[in-house]
Design goal:
CATH topology of the largest domain: Ribosomal Protein S5, domain 2
Radius of gyration: 27 Å
CATH architecture of the largest domain: 2-Layer Sandwich
CATH class of the largest domain: Alpha Beta
Number of helices: 6
Shape: elongated
Order of helices and strands: EEEEHHEHHEHEH
Helix content: 25-40%
Number of domains: 2
Distance between the termini: 45 Å
Largest sheet: 5 strands, mixed
Number of strands: 7
Strand content: 15-25%
């Protein structure tokens, strides 16, 4: 790996392949066929990318990223020699030659793919990107700047002052089930609803130690 974070994967005399991770999700490809630049890629790029994507997806099964998600974070550099190549137009920007006609074939070795996974840290980058997506979704759901009180949370009885300038003095009462919630609300007839809110819990409180962030968003 050089300073640019590019990993070279030796294939054969007709194929030269490099891979790189792109954490931002706007990966691009650079490809050549018989020395001609193919700006729109084609079957040669897909041949390499499909093998690399499969290796990445398999290596991070716990994260369960889609193939499309990984593709957007995988940069492919390909230079190959194809006999009698077929293109989509006279401009020769996209290779249409079926992969079955590649001779010799472009088969990426497992050891080289493993080296790319390790050297590029692409799995860690995908995990970081997924974590940011979860955090962004949570922030959007609980955006206090745009609305004073939380909405869309079933059975939440929020304090009247919640989310405003006086929210630091508010208390949320958590009850075990709806029956206890009704009892708490009855008590608020005396205390008042300005500083106190009530929310009933369903089932047992989950121990979130060691639980992944993506799983936390699914807890009801």
């Amino acid at each position: 790996v050089g300073d640019a974070g590019i990993t070279h994967l030796p294939v054969n005399k007709n194929w030269d392949v490099c891979l790189a991770a792109c954490e931002s999700g706007d990966a691009f490809d650079v490809s050549f066929v018989n020395g001609m630049y193919t700006a729109l890629g084609g079957s040669h790029v897909e041949c390499v990318k499909n093998q690399a994507v499969a290796a990445v997806v398999d290596a991070c099964k716990d994260l369960r990223p889609t193939a499309a998600y990984v593709k957007n974070r995988l940069q492919v550099f390909v230079s190959c020699a194809i006999a009698n190549p077929e293109f989509d137009s006279q401009r020769k920007e996209r290779l249409l030659t079926p992969q079955s006609q590649f001779k010799p074939k472009c088969a990426l070795k497992r050891t080289h793919l493993a080296a790319f996974l390790k050297e590029s840290s692409i799995i860690d980058k995908i995990k970081s990107a997924l974590d940011r997506n979860v955090e962004a979704a949570a922030a959007k759901s609980f955006n206090h700047r745009k609305q004073k009180q939380l909405t869309g949370i079933r059975k939440l009885e929020d304090a009247h002052d919640a989310g405003g300038a006086k929210s630091d003095g508010c208390t949320l009462i958590l009850t075990e089930g709806d029956s206890a919630k009704a009892f708490a609300i009855a008590g608020l007839e005396v205390l008042g609803r300005e500083k106190f809110g009530v929310f009933p819990l369903r089932g047992k409180i989950k121990n979130v130690r060691g639980v992944k962030r993506a799983s936390l968003t699914k807890i009801e």
